[in-house]
Amino acid sequence: YLAKEGRTGVELYQADKDRNSPERLNLLGDLRRGLDNHELKLHYQPKVSLADGTVHGVEALLRWRHPVHGAIAPSEFIPLAEQSYLMRQLTEYVINEALEQAARWWRAGLPVQISVNISARDLLDSALPEQLEAGLARLQLPPSAIQLEVTERILTGQQAYTHDTIKALAALGVPLALDDFGTGYSSLIRLQRLAVSEVKIDASFVRRIAESEDDNRIVRSIVDLVRSLGLRSVAEGVESDAVALRLAEMGCDLGQGWLFGRPMPAQDATAWLRDRHMTSPEATYDLHPEVT
Ligand code: C2E
Ligand code: MG
Ligand code: MG
Ligand code: MG
After folding, report:
1. Residue 152 pLDDT > 80, yes or no?
2. ipTM more than 0.90?
3. The whole model's pTM is what?
4. Which of 145, 179, 188, 254 could connect to 141 by a Cys-Cys bridge, CB 3.0–4.6 Å?
5. If phi over 0 gives left and psi between -120 and 50 gives alpha, with beta otherwise, what is residue 57?
6. Is 179 in the pocket of ligand 1 (CB under 6 A)?
7. 193-199 long-range CB contacts below 8 Å, 24 or more apart?
């Protein structure tokens, strides 16, 4: 293993990039064990309205504390899992954890939508809509209690196969968000055909809109495009008031980033949510009585 000291003193771990290296295979084995041992936990980051600050949902982001190597970033272990049979199990775990948390929040009078990241390959799995449907029914949650985030990569290749899963999700009423928008090669027509309800503008464009006229124009045109399609726009990586202000002026709907809140463990997120005004994903949803 190549362990190195991070600037914060937290041990960062870099898996060897070689696909079949012993390090990589070891880490994959560790990940499988880590999943069984609940070493992986979801943290939750708020998405807020840029116009009035109300909370419109949270994104679930996976955190792994390795017993020996410490914190390992999703950018390290997600690509690893994506190349293996483990991805399916990982996504299943994440969806179940998110559904359980949504049920806890909805029962506590915090009807918040949880967005879950799935990988493009998860859409090849026809069992995904069934898992969601069963989980929502078991926990007595409306389909809008959850949202799936997929990157633009779903627009490249294997479209015929993913199409059925996307159709099944739409029939179920589970919303779909397009993540990291601007980094891929989506055309307007493809975007419209995809039946997404939310477009998340990648942080790499958002970050510099207060200084760069070019980035400002790019984000403005994405916001306009998204609005013209009747979809919701979300800016990722909002770190400053200046950026939030510009986004609000453009008419961008929601913002997500350190300015509003970092990804937090469920308990901290509960406290954070309690202090805020929320906009329910389904205001008319009839809450079921307390169940334990
Ligand atoms: P993403 O879905 O685009 O998530 C946004 C990333 O931006 C997160 O990184 C989040 O912590 C980070 N972020 C949020 N606000 C700010 C900010 O103001 N400034 C900066 N610099 N960063 C900010 P994270 O948690 O490291 O996740 C990275 C990526 O890993 C995610 O990108 C997503 O693609 C993937 N990922 C995370 N959790 C899961 C999961 O449960 N399943 C799958 N399939 N992928 C996941
Ligand atoms: Mg995401
Ligand atoms: Mg993103
Ligand atoms: Mg990303």
Report:
1. no
2. yes
3. 0.90
4. 145
5. left
6. yes
7. 194/154, 194/155, 194/166, 195/166, 195/167, 195/170, 196/231, 197/147, 197/231, 197/232, 198/147, 198/231, 198/232, 198/233, 198/234, 199/226, 199/231, 199/232, 199/233, 199/234
